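Hello again, I could really use a second opinion on something today. I owe you a coffee for this, so here goes:
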Amino acid sequence: MDWSLVALTIVAAYDVSDDSRRARLAALLQTCGDRIQLSVFVLTLGDDELDELQARALSIIDPEEDSLYLFRQCGGCWEAARCIGQAYPPTQEYFWAVL
């Protein structure tokens, strides 16, 4: 099995001080997943896509001032997530593919 094709669930959280950099980073993250808080996204990516995202994010942020956390979530961890109040985990949509 080619593990690079397996989708990973990633929680991305950032703290970016500059408005322009913050907007560009948020736009990048939104292309890969769902915003669940102002500076927190849940992403579904393959290993190669995660590497590309990391490189693109590094070209946006200022490593001396900003931070970006990328937390890989295993299936069991994600299933055990607890949400309170208005919070809810994004549902994963499955599609049929004919190869």
Observations:
- The CA atoms of residues 32 and 89 lie 15 Å apart.
- The chain is about 30% helix and 25% strand.
- The radius of gyration is 15 Å.
